[in-house]
Amino acid sequence: MAAAGDAVWAQLHDGTARTHAPRRTLVVLGACGTGKSTLLDHLTARRTPPLDGALDYAYVDVRAAPRADAPDAAADDAHLATHLYVLHAAAPAVGATLPYAFPPVHEGHASLHALRSAGVVVVLDGSAPWTWAAQLVRWLALLRTTIEGATSPTPTEDRAAMQQSLAATLPATDDAARPAGQLVENLGVPLVIVLTKADAIARLVDDRRVSEAQLDYVQQVVRTVAARYSAAVVSTSAARPASLEALRECVRGALQRAPVGLAASTNDPATLVVPPGWDAWSKIGVLDASFDCAATGEAWAAALEGDGAFAAAYAQRMPAPADDTPPADDVARVDEQAFLAQLYAQQPTPTEPAPTSTVPADDARNALGPPVGTSTLDMPAVGQALAAQQAAPGAPEAPGAPDETPTPARRSTRPDARGALSPRGTSSATSPKQTEVLHSFFQSLLKKPAGAGSGTGMPDVPGTPSTPRTRLSQQGSDTARSPGHTARGI
């Protein structure tokens, strides 16, 4: 019973500590698709709500990593109630909403009181290192403008307190003893630069899209810029939980204004870890002695004022691949009907259908001859012979034949009323007349003369040219004398 009561009191104590704990503000700046949601899910140990607006807000609890040496940490140390603001673009229309992350806002200006307990995380896409310079210029220029425009009843005292609080978290507190290039610009707000998708950096080298010399150059540029603000630099990957734990320590140190006890790692850009206040020009030059940190710092200061020399020099050393286009800050949503109309206009015009064969399947199957039961009038040779006889000059018209030469029509396999097959396009009434003409023609050829000595010859065949009577009589006499020649004459 006592154990149950202790558990209830522990829950009440924990809830009270979280409610009355000092609230911090965490601002995450990063373009769309850089991996911000994955980082936030790990920092809060829960699924964050969808963040897809101009300036998204969520109330989260940045939990501390469990430690083996101090399992019973204080409630205010284990839980860190945080106001989370996420900005997805640095465009003027979207960046103008950043001051509202530090209320109370007076006429579009942030409050210095909220900035004193805030931390900023800038997220860069590790799979596209050619975009780092442009993204850094946009985000840090926007952050500096917001901080310089912040107001309070006592702005001078508040700014001095912010700068002293940031300097107190660094290893060296004496400005005169600081290494060259460190904390040149004291914004008074802790800054963490995160290189997400670090496992993609190795693939870029394997695919020969980026050389190792280029990676050393971009690492030196990022570290030079980070050293000017004493910012932490961490490369993270979902496949390496240790990198996410390092980021958690840097974020909690920035929110609590406490030193970060992390070991630096600068050998590989995929496992880069630079604690705040650790880097300097002497350490950056170890990678490449030809790199000029001082010139890069001056070019960076001019870039914040609008000069493009810094971005141009970076693009010359780290150009974007030919198959990659720079990401757009603002994605315009096209109207659905306009999009469909555009797709319809891009469709090819319909072509004419392929011509099909007009020859019936029966004709293709019966190419060697007419089918059984088909009239001989459908044979092309007979039709041509009849047309030639009728077209000859002086040829008598065949009895019962039509005035015009009939054109051979396509066969039809449909029987007529009498059950006989008739040509398509020809009436059944004309078919017997043409058949009679052919019948009489062939019978006249086979008909023998009436007598051997008679003067009469073969009768005129209808539809054939007339033959002189005397010649037919002579042929008849020869046939009568030599009966054996009858078959040869036929």
Automatic annotation (TrEMBL):
<protein>
    <recommendedName>
        <fullName>Dynein light intermediate chain</fullName>
    </recommendedName>
</protein>
<dbReference type="GO" id="GO:0005874">
    <property type="term" value="C:microtubule"/>
</dbReference>
<comment type="similarity">
    <text>Belongs to the dynein light intermediate chain family.</text>
</comment>
<dbReference type="Pfam" id="PF05783">
    <property type="entry name" value="DLIC"/>
</dbReference>
<dbReference type="GO" id="GO:0005868">
    <property type="term" value="C:cytoplasmic dynein complex"/>
</dbReference>
<keyword id="KW-0067">ATP-binding</keyword>
<keyword id="KW-0206">Cytoskeleton</keyword>
<keyword id="KW-0963">Cytoplasm</keyword>
<keyword id="KW-0505">Motor protein</keyword>
<dbReference type="InterPro" id="IPR022780">
    <property type="entry name" value="Dynein_light_int_chain"/>
</dbReference>
<keyword id="KW-0243">Dynein</keyword>
<dbReference type="GO" id="GO:0035974">
    <property type="term" value="C:meiotic spindle pole body"/>
</dbReference>
<keyword id="KW-0813">Transport</keyword>
<feature type="region of interest" description="Disordered">
    <location>
        <begin position="344"/>
        <end position="434"/>
    </location>
</feature>
<dbReference type="InterPro" id="IPR027417">
    <property type="entry name" value="P-loop_NTPase"/>
</dbReference>
<keyword id="KW-0493">Microtubule</keyword>
<feature type="region of interest" description="Disordered">
    <location>
        <begin position="447"/>
        <end position="490"/>
    </location>
</feature>
<dbReference type="GO" id="GO:0005524">
    <property type="term" value="F:ATP binding"/>
</dbReference>
<dbReference type="GO" id="GO:0000226">
    <property type="term" value="P:microtubule cytoskeleton organization"/>
</dbReference>
<feature type="compositionally biased region" description="Polar residues">
    <location>
        <begin position="424"/>
        <end position="434"/>
    </location>
</feature>
<dbReference type="GO" id="GO:0007018">
    <property type="term" value="P:microtubule-based movement"/>
</dbReference>
<feature type="compositionally biased region" description="Polar residues">
    <location>
        <begin position="464"/>
        <end position="480"/>
    </location>
</feature>
<dbReference type="GO" id="GO:0045504">
    <property type="term" value="F:dynein heavy chain binding"/>
</dbReference>
<dbReference type="InterPro" id="IPR008467">
    <property type="entry name" value="Dynein1_light_intermed_chain"/>
</dbReference>
<feature type="compositionally biased region" description="Low complexity">
    <location>
        <begin position="380"/>
        <end position="409"/>
    </location>
</feature>
<keyword id="KW-0547">Nucleotide-binding</keyword>
